[in-house]
Automatic annotation (TrEMBL):
Record CDD domains: BRcat_RBR_RNF216 (cd20339), Rcat_RBR_RNF14 (cd20354)
Organism phylogeny: Eukaryota, Metazoa, Ecdysozoa, Nematoda, Chromadorea
This protein's UniProt keywords: Metal-binding, Repeat, Transferase, Ubl conjugation pathway, Zinc, Zinc-finger
UniProt-recorded name of the protein: IBR domain-containing protein
Pfam families in the record: Rcat_RNF216
Keyword hit for Cell inner membrane: no
InterPro entries the record matches: BRcat_RBR_RNF216, LUBAC_E3_Ligases, Rcat_RBR_RNF14, TRIAD_supradom
Coiled coil: none
This protein's pathway: Protein modification; protein ubiquitination
Organism: Elaeophora elaphi
Amino acid sequence: DEILSSNIVNVEFCPFCDFPANFNNSEDRTLVCLNAVCQKESCRKCRRESHIPLRCEELEQGVDFETRKRKFIEERMSEAVIRKCPTCDRKITKETGCNKMTCPCGTFFCYVCNAKLPEDNPYRHFSNARGRCQQDTPLEQLHEMAAKRAGLEALRVFNERNPESVNVRAPDINALAGVKKKAKLTTTERRR
């Protein structure tokens, strides 16, 4: 009642525990409850447990588990190759060049780890001996690794949220990530 009477805008309540959450981004489809006991993710539109990447209508139509699993994994893998500026949250995807990104807001950040880089010398981040980020990484390799990690994690999360779908066929994550399969050498080729 205090929150409602305080005229705070963009407040929504968790449908599972009524814990309040402030929403600055109206595009977010999911409400993540910050109540330490609850911590459930729910759909802001239908107020059911989060079903992204499915739309509410698709959920009501009863889309099969295999399709839901594939869509969920594909969505997470796509998100893995998109970075957000650590200052303004603008979505950015690298197409060419080194791993020092410059957001239109003026922030420098690392494409590999998403760390905000120092304004006076953003390249210092890449010369740090303890750092794990290289200034140049083949883009295809970087995106494949990120997509594969995200795909495996998405599969784990989907199966955890939907235990009845564990035995449902999952998509080939390597194929979705674009991972190149090493050609096996035939016996004749190995002898040469």
